[in-house]
C-alpha cells in the first residue's frame, strides 16, 4: 500500500478554506485527474477520474469523520481504487491555514491495476501539484463551483476527503461522526 503526506499553507481564513475543501464539487477545480464527483447518498460520493488512453477510473467514497475547521477523513467503499486518509486544517495566524493531506492507496492488480498505477504514477508530485492549485483557487477568493466538472445529486455541500490523483496518510482516524 502506498502512502503520501503533503502540507501547504494557504493565505486565507481557516473557515473559508475548510468550507471550500469540504464541498466535493470543488475538487475538479484543483485536482488534475478528477473529472466528476456526484453525491449519491449521505456522506457517500461517486468519483470519476481520468485514466490512461481515455479510460475512466471510478470509485465510491464515504466520509468517515468531520470536525468543523479541523479534519475530514474518508475511505473508499466500492470501485477500482482502495484508499483511505484525512485532511487536516490548522490555523497559522489570522488569515493563514495549513492544509495537510495524508493518504494510503492500493490499486488493484491485473490490467486494470496498470491503468490505476498510471493514475498514481507519482502520487507525491501529483498531490503537491493539486495542493498548489488548491492554494491558488483558495487565495483568489473565487469560490464559485464549476458545475460543468462536478455534479451533486442533492445539491448540498458534502464533507469531502481527498481521494483523487493522490491519497493521504493521516490514516487510522476513521472515526464516525
Keywords summarizing the entry:
alpha+beta; 177 residues; Alpha-D-Glucose-1,6-Bisphosphate, Chain A, domain 4; 7-stranded antiparallel sheet; disordered C terminus; 7 strands; globular; 3 helices
**CATH hierarchy: architecture:** 2-Layer Sandwich
Mean pLDDT: 77
Global outline:
globular
Q: Major sheet: size, sense and barrel closure?
A: 7 strands, antiparallel
Distance between the termini: 26 Å
Q: Please tally the helical runs, counting DSSP H or I stretches of 4 or more residues.
A: 3
Strand content: 35-45%
Helix content: 10-25%
**How are helices and strands ordered from N to C?**
EHEEEEEEHH
Arrangement of strands in the largest sheet: 1-7-6-5-4-3-2
State the total count of DSSP E strands. 7
Work out the count of structural domains: 1
Give the name of the CATH superfamily.
START domain
What gyration radius follows from the Cα positions, in whole Å? 15 Å
CATH class: Alpha Beta
CATH topology: Alpha-D-Glucose-1,6-Bisphosphate, Chain A, domain 4
Regions with pLDDT < 50 over 5+ consecutive residues? 145-177
Q: Could you characterize the architecture of this molecule?
A:
The chain is α+β, with helices and mostly antiparallel strands. The chain has a single domain, classed as 2-Layer Sandwich (Alpha-D-Glucose-1,6-Bisphosphate, Chain A, domain 4). The protein is built from 3 helices and 7 strands, in the order E-H-E-E-E-E-E-E-H-H. It has a 7-stranded antiparallel sheet, with helices on one face. The chain is globular and about 45 Å long. The model is unreliable at 145-177 (pLDDT under 50).
